[in-house]
C-alpha cells in the first residue's frame, strides 16, 4: 500500500495555465497560496472583503508571473456574493480547474459566550458559503476533472478549547465534503476533494488571537500554503500540516481521547485570556 500510494510526485508545471479561485486571499495562508499559484503560472481569481489589500495581492501575483490575476471584493455571509465569485471566474476564464475554499469569518479565542446569532453567522461564512460555491462551480469542475480544496483545521477533527463556534463550522465541512466525496465516486464524478487538516500557523490574525494563552509553536504560512496546493494537485483526500502536529494527535484521538484532552489543556495559560468573556459559565 505504501509503495503504490506514494507514486505521485508534485511538479510545479502541473499548475501552468490552470484556472484557480482562492478565497480569503487578502492576507494569511490564502495570500501565500495566491503567490505560489502565480509563480507556477496559474490564472488566479482572488476574493475577500478588503479591496485595497486584494489590489496589492493581484499586483504581486502579476509580478510573480501569473498569466492573469483578478479580484472580486465582498463578504461571504452573502450567498449571492459567494455564487457571483464563481460566475466571475466563468466570465474571465471560461472554465475552472481548482476551487480553493480558505476564508473564515472573524472568531474569538475564548470561552464560548453563548451568542447564538454569531454562531449562525459563522456557520454561514465558514460553511454555507463553501457549499454554495461548490454547487455553483461543479459544472465547470466536472468539465475539467478539477479539484476542490477545503481548508480546515485540527480543530475540525478534535475538540479544542476556546474555539467552540469555529470548531463546529470546521467539523461541518468534514461531514459535508467527506460524504460528498463518496457520492462523487459512486457517480463517477472525477472531481477531487482535498480536506486540509492544519495546525497552528503564524498568520497575523492567529498570532494576535491566541496571544499569550498558547505555549505552542506556530508553523510558517508560506510552507503551509505550498503543502495545501500540493495536496490539491495530487488529489489527496486529506492533507496534514504540520504532519507531526496533526497525525499524531489524531492517532490518540480514537484510542486515548482523555489523555489527548488533558495534554491539550496543559499547554494553555488560561489566566492570559483577553477580556471577560465568561458570562455563560
Ligand atoms: N492560522 C492558523 O493558525 C490556522 C488557520 N487555519 C485555517 O486556514 C485558513 C486561513 O486562515 P488564516 O490565513 O489564518 O486567516 P486570516 O485571518 O489571515 O485570513 C482570513 C481571510 O478571510 C477573509 N475574510 C474574513 N472575513 C470574511 C468574510 N466575511 N467574507 C469574505 N472573506 C472574509 C479575510 O479578508 P478580509 O478581512 O479582507 O475579508 C482574509 O483574506 C482558514 O480556513 C483557517 O480556518 C486552520 C488551522 C490553523
Ligand atoms: C491537537 C493539539 C495537540 C494541538 C492543538 C492546537 C490548537 C491550540 C490550535 C490548532 C488550530 C488552531 C486555531 C485555528 O484552527 C484557527 C484559528 C483562527 C484564527 O483566526 C485565530 C486562531 C485560531 C483560533 C487557532 C488557535 C489555535 C488552534 C486552536
TrEMBL record:
Topological type in the membrane: Single-pass type II membrane protein
SUPFAM superfamilies according to UniProt: NAD(P)-binding Rossmann-fold domains (SSF51735)
Location(s), subcellular: Endoplasmic reticulum membrane
EC number annotated for this UniProt entry: 1.1.1.146, 1.1.1.201
Keywords: Endoplasmic reticulum, Membrane, Oxidoreductase, Signal, Transmembrane, Transmembrane helix
Cellular component per GO, a single term: endoplasmic reticulum membrane
The keyword Hydrolase is assigned to this record: no
GO biological process assignments: steroid catabolic process
Class in the EC hierarchy, top level: oxidoreductase
GO molecular function ontology, one term from the record: steroid binding
Reactions catalysed, as given in the entry: 3beta-hydroxy-5alpha-androstane-7,17-dione + NADPH + H(+) = 3beta,7beta-dihydroxy-5alpha-androstan-17-one + NADP(+); a 7beta-hydroxysteroid + NADP(+) = a 7-oxosteroid + NADPH + H(+); glycochenodeoxycholate + NADP(+) = 7-oxoglycolithocholate + NADPH + H(+); chenodeoxycholate + NADP(+) = 7-oxolithocholate + NADPH + H(+)
Top-rank taxon, per record: Eukaryota
Residue ranges crossing the lipid bilayer per the database entry: none
Family: Belongs to the short-chain dehydrogenases/reductases (SDR) family.
Subunit structure: Homodimer.
PANTHER family membership: 11-BETA-HYDROXYSTEROID DEHYDROGENASE 1, HYDROXYSTEROID (11-BETA) DEHYDROGENASE 1-LIKE B-RELATED
Name the UniProt record assigns to this protein: 11-beta-hydroxysteroid dehydrogenase 1
Gene name in the database record: LOC115481513
Amino acid at each position: 500500500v505504501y509503495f503504490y500510494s506514494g507514486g505521485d510526485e508534485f511538479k510545479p508545471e502541473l499548475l501552468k495555465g490552470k484556472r484557480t479561485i482562492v478565497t480569503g486571499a487578502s492576507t494569511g495562508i490564502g495570500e501565500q497560496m495566491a503567490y505560489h499559484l502565480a509563480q507556477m503560472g496559474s490564472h488566479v481569481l482572488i476574493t475577500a472583503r478588503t479591496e485595497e489589500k486584494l489590489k496589492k495581492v493581484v499586483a504581486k501575483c502579476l509580478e510573480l508571473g501569473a498569466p492573469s490575476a483578478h479580484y472580486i471584493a465582498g463578504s461571504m455571509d452573502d450567498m449571492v456574493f459567494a455564487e457571483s465569485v464563481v460566475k466571475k471566474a466563468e466570465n474571465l476564464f471560461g472554465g475552472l480547474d481548482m476551487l480553493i475554499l480558505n476564508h473564515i469569518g472573524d472568531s474569538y479565542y475564548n470561552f464560548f459566550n453563548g451568542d447564538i446569532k454569531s454562531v449562525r453567522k459563522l456557520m454561514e461564512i465558514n460553511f454555507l458559503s463553501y457549499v454554495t460555491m461548490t454547487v455553483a462551480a461543479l459544472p465547470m469542475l466536472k468539465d475539467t476533472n478539477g479539484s476542490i480544496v477545503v481548508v480546515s483545521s485540527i480543530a475540525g477533527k478534535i475538540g479544542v478549547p476556546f474555539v467552540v463556534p469555529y470548531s463546529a463550522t470546521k467539523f461541518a465541512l468534514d461531514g459535508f465534503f467527506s460524504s460528498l466525496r463518496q457520492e462523487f465516486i459512486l457517480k463517477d464524478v472525477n472531481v477531487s476533494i482535498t480536506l486540509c487538516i492544519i495546525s497552528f500557523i503564524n498568520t497575523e490574525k492567529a498570532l494576535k488571537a491566541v496571544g499569550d494563552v498558547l505555549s505552542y509553536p506556530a508553523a510558517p504560512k508560506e510552507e503551509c500554503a505550498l503543502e495545501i496546493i500540493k495536496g490539491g494537485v495530487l488529489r489527496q483526500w486529506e492533507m496534514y500540516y504540520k504532519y507531526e502536529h496533526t497525525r499524531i494527535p489524531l492517532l490518540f484521538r480514537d484510542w486515548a481521547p482523555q489523555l489527548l484532552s488533558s495534554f491539550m489543556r496543559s499547554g494553555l495559560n488560561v489566566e492570559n485570556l483577553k477580556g471577560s468573556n465568561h458570562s455563560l459559565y
